[in-house]
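REQUEST FORM: STRUCTURE PREDICTION
Request ID: SP-0412
Submitted by: Lab K.M.
Chain count: 1
Length (residues): 324
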Amino acid sequence: MPEHGGRLKENARRHGIAESEWLDLSTGINPHSWQVPSIPDAIWQRLPEEEDGLADAARSYYGTNSLLPVAGSQAAIRALPSLIPECEVAVLSPSFSEHAGSWKGHRVRLFPESAILEQADSARVVVVVNPNNPTGKVFRRKDLLCACDRLAKRGGWLIVDEAFMDAEPAESLAGDCPREGLVVLRSVGKFFGLAGARTGFVLAPANFLERLSDSIGPWAIANPSRFVTTLALQDRSWQKGMREKLPGGARRLAGVLEDSGLPVSGGTALFQWTKTPNAAFIQEHLAKRGILVRLFAEPASLRFGIPGDEAGFSRLATALEEFI
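STATUS: Completed
RESULT:
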């Protein structure tokens, strides 16, 4: 199983530090999450219903009428390969490792950011993460649409994972759906800070969504998660304020890293990424001080989420200074 951020319990046991004492910067989840209200008892007692307003809220938020709610974009990542006959699949690398791992039975090849869109002329499926995780690379909308059109002419598909797009959505393809050959994945886990809700959306042509829905089956999302996600997607005031707030935290984090001798190689409003041959040593040094960051082996690098408060920024800066 590919390694991810989080794993707080595992690290707490390993280092003998209580879970409550950790500063978890490993996931890229917004530390200023949308505040979940009290959930009525009736929500817990009833089975999920499609007419509960979730799909309508999502259609309004994403600007498309062709979408399917799923149990987090991870559920879609695992289900999509079964809907497409065995073929050549070009996957972005480095990137979210679940994409490459999910296409077992297909002919998977990995390509760097500079070459991935060129594969629209040869591969049947091209998988892109935008903004990319962990590099923060943003692919321009017009370039992605051009690649999609080239794929569609040959019966192919462009799959775009936009898990980190909400904070700065200018290059999103959500509003271009439905479009022949295009599948867009969205999630409320990162920007909204609702990773535990396990709610995501697949934006694609209607016939494709019908097949995906049949594959996933009924009641994919728990009723409380549907209730919370609906309210979060409708809260435009919170969304606007958060888009204004997050870039400042990202700039401050970049400054902390630069001041510690770690050049920022990329990032988004929700994380910063640094390439360094000392990545494994730095991760271990921080973990011994109860700070969890995401380690990548190839290239050797670290991804830092945004601390949620002044104490978090100070604690990280002090720990990095100690390493130096």
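NOTES: The two ends are 34 Å apart (CA to CA).
Reviewed by: T.R.
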